[in-house]
Amino acid sequence: MRLDKFLAEVGIGSRKEVKVLIKKGQIKVNEEVIKSDKFQVKEFDDQITYLDEPLVYQKDFYYVLNKPAGVISATQDNYEQTVMDLLSDEDYREDLFPVGRLDKDTEGLLILTNDGKLAHRLLSPKKHVEKEYFAKVKGVMTEEDIDSFARGLVIDKGEQTLPAQLFIDSIDHEEETSAIRLILHEGKFHQVKRMVQAVGKEVTYLKRLRMGGFLLPESLDNGEYRELTETELLQLQEQNK
């Protein structure tokens, strides 16, 4: 791997910025100052330092975020706060991105990574990776709704959804509200809201709980994030092969 590419990938700076550091003699490879950005390094074997601080190569990064409402699922935006703005300067990388989108007012499980292959497997319609949501609904959900969801619904604009599993957790008949969980096998735009709307009700609160076999960690408060553990990463990877 070229030295400038290595430095950029470990987060020291952009390819343009690290070239300057190299020319200034601030980079050493195996204790030797290297001033060529094209110098070839073995990323896992060579000892590479910046201002005598060792650099450890890591190709892929994985974070789990308990997304709060009011933040958009994008890498950058000129007007709105994004999920990337929630990362500390230490964890922020330009190549990170959210896996899929949660609406601005939707909370819950969101994976941030730079692993495009994993993201594709999680989002590919062919993989049918389950996504589980909790929702509060204005209106009383019924057994007929459960059957309709199980068959697949025609939502607005004539779109046909795949069969989905609807569970009614509770009903408040006095307030005419419901609490539900919904398991989807696809990810159409605003799908949960549109499916609930198709049976004459309205989602007032929405939170994603699970992707595949990976549950939102209970210890993660709203707006908090952390790196995935090796076990959690395997939970995401194994069921998508």
Features:
single chain, 241 residues, alpha+beta, Structural Genomics Hypothetical 15.5 Kd Protein In mrcA-pckA Intergenic Region, Chain A, Alpha-Beta Plaits, 3 domains, nine-stranded mixed β-sheet, four-stranded antiparallel β-sheet, 6 helices, 27% strand, PsdUridine_synth_cat_dom_sf, PsdUridine_synth_RsuA/RluA
Outline:
With 241 residues, this protein is of the alpha+beta class.
Topology (SSEs and partners):
Elements: H1 3-9, H2 15-23, E1 27-29, E2 32-33, E3 48-50, E4 53-54, E5 62-67, E6 97-98, E7 107-113, H3 116-123, E8 131-138, H4 143-151, E9 165-172, E10 177-184, H5 191-198, E11 202-211, E12 214-215, E13 225-227, H6 230-238
Parallel strand pairs: 7-11
Antiparallel strand pairs: 1-2, 1-3, 3-4, 5-7, 5-13, 6-7, 8-10, 8-11, 9-10, 11-12
Helix pairs in contact: 1-2
Question: Would you write up a description of this structure?
Answer:
The protein is 21% helix and 27% strand. The chain is an alpha+beta fold. The protein folds into three domains: 3-55, Structural Genomics Hypothetical 15.5 Kd Protein In mrcA-pckA Intergenic Region, Chain A (Roll), CATH 3.10.290; 62-125 and 221-238, 2-Layer Sandwich (Alpha-Beta Plaits); 130-211, 2-Layer Sandwich (Alpha-Beta Plaits), CATH 3.30.70. A hairpin with a 4-residue loop joins β9 and β10. The longest helix has 9 residues, at 15-23. The mean pLDDT is 93.
